[in-house]
Amino acid sequence: MNGFPNPSATLRRLLSPRLDTCLACGRPALLGASLPLLCRRCAALVPWITEPRCLVCGRAQGCPDCLRPDAARRAFTLNRSAALYDKTMREWIAAYKYGGQELFAEPFSLMLEQAYRRMRSELSARSEADSAHADRTVIEKRLLSRFRHAFRSDAWSADCVTWVPVSAERLEERGFNQAERMARRLAKHMRLPAHELLARTRHTGKQSFKTRAQRLHNLNGAFCPAPNLDPRIFKEWDLIGRTKQPGGSFPIRILLIDDIYTTGTTAAVCASALQRLEERSGRPVSVYSLTLARS
Ligand SMILES: [Zn+2]
Ligand SMILES: [Zn+2]
Fold first, then answer.
1. Which ligand minimizes its atom distance to the CA of 22?
2. Could you tell me the residue range of the domain that residue 29 belongs to?
């Protein structure tokens, strides 16, 4: 070897398109046409939720959950998810969280970005949203009136991105917080500030096999505002509030990122913890949940 690149190999590389191994199926293919690191075939498997039927939790099907009497008291305004939690998403999320395939953060954060853009245009279009509510039931209307401010006629956008924290034990075991990684990428792409606002008070174990009541009992008090929050965050919020609505009490819109939305308990409990920041920031806080998959 003389240290110079082999001219015929260089030429070959220039002439033939570069094939890489798809992160999901492992086959050599041209990657990234629609989602980074994925082949076209795998990217086409994503069960996108483009039109949520439940305006509260973003479910693609009809939703008895959000019509329960206790649902109106949930501390978050609404949830939107990028895709359904089907077999494909289950496999990919498991590979990301437990299988060491951390590169899934790339396609996943792009999926969140697309869902965020959709959410932004949905919430910005108040008049359309209102006319879509015309045929809704009394309970649905009551729920919707709770977050009427979300459908302001001016453009909606998040003011701050944060994520559901994992316990120290989980962090040790996995080496990273899967939600934080996606949230930070999303925030960077969308040029939004990202802050670690929440902490876990204790390890809560797996939620997967628990009922709604068990989940709530298990998670109650499991989150709190992160200790030693930088006071500059609240200065930033104040500036945002004063810019968006001079002289008013503009609510800071926090986008809470997680991987899976199941019953909404985690989002609700985290949102309550985030609302404890109202006192310190002197501003109302509205929490919007954005998740990768909706079961
Ligand atoms: Zn593939
Ligand atoms: Zn719902």
1. 1
2. 17-46
